[in-house]
Amino acid sequence: MIDPRASDGAGGRPIFRFAPSPNGYLHLGHAFSALLNFRWAKMAGGKFLLRIEDIDPERSRRPFEAALIEDLRWLGVDWDETPRRQSDHLAEYRQALEGLTQRGLAYPCFCSRGDIGQICATEVNWPRDPDGAFLYPGTCRALSPAERTERVAAGARWSLRLDMAKALSQFAQPLTYNEYHEGETGRIVVAQPELWGDALIGRRDVPASYHIACTLDDDAQGVTDVARGVDLEPVTGLHRLLQALLGLRTPRYRHHRLVLDGEGRKLSKSKAAQSLRDLRDGGVAAETIRADLSRLMKITL
User: Based on CB atoms within 10 Å of each CB, which residue in 69, 75, 121, 231 is the most buried?
Assistant: First the structure.
């Protein structure tokens, strides 16, 4: 059980959030995270916010956004403010990226995923990031400013990467954050952003990466407690670095367990996990969903 006294934000009230992407229907994994955030916010006398992470214009759909709002309300989850939609804040993300570039902490990369794969696959035991992707070999990091400008002016497609070595050199001491998982007592964790190498922070197909948008949004919304799946715990080190570079506040982190399928895999939209909409259309009551998840995860929702 979360201790409300451990959750007092700087403004007096803790702030939790649930931040789904409208690229499909919500499933039981989403339901667990939303209900857990909602419960913890209420237990702590705080606020619960909804954020729509629709930064990917090709996959995000307004019908899915409407559906997830309907599903959450069906579950009994409500929020304290108008939902923040990332697509309304693209200029803010762009400004942050431009600032990092001007400081020499980010650079344009003209390599495709295929290019990187060809380079790294030829080497034995090329290092990979926590998601299993090859660490970027630094091909475009060595380009001169003139070469970069010439390629951009010629219309070459490019993404923006964080220069990890330069970014880390800005700090004399290791960066840390507080991790609580699902308990009352936190522990100090030393961030390890270097595990991600020169991470993508601005993509070809969207104005900014999840990493930039997420960290800026949490700060803008005053989020004090980020409760999200344990699968996102490895990326917290990178987010902590971006917070430090951009002068943002660092929330407490509460990475929770995942709802798994019968084969022990996490539920996902890409693997066609059964949606809340399907369950509801099949006659399952919201109270049943809450009771089943509480029993399965051994925590009151």
Answer: 75
Per residue in 150-190, pLDDT (tens digit) is 999 999 999 999 999 999 999 999 999 999 999 999 999 99
DSSP lists the bridge partners of residue 252 as 225
pLDDT digits (tens, 9 = 90+) for 258-283: 999 888 888 887 777 899 999 999 99
Q: Are 100 and 106 within 8 A, CB to CB? A: yes
* 36, two tokens: 């857990």
**Alpha-carbon distance 3 to 43, whole Å?**
8
CATH 3.40.50.1700 fits 1-7+15-86+259-301, yes or no: no
Q: Which residue has the tokens 């803008």?
A: 220
Q: Which tokens is 187 given? A: 């522990």
Question: Using CA of residue 97, residue 102, residue 103, residue 104, what is the dihedral sign?
Answer: positive
pLDDT in tens, 195-247: 999 999 998 777 799 999 999 999 999 999 999 999 999 999 999 999 999 99
- How many other C-beta atoms are found inside a 10 Å radius of the C-beta of residue 206? 21
Q: What is the pLDDT of residue 7?
A: 47
Phi/psi for 100 (5° steps) reads -65, -40
Angle 36-42-46 from CA coordinates, rounded to 5°: 115
pTM higher than 0.90, yes or no?
yes
CA 160-163-166 angle, 5° bins: 150
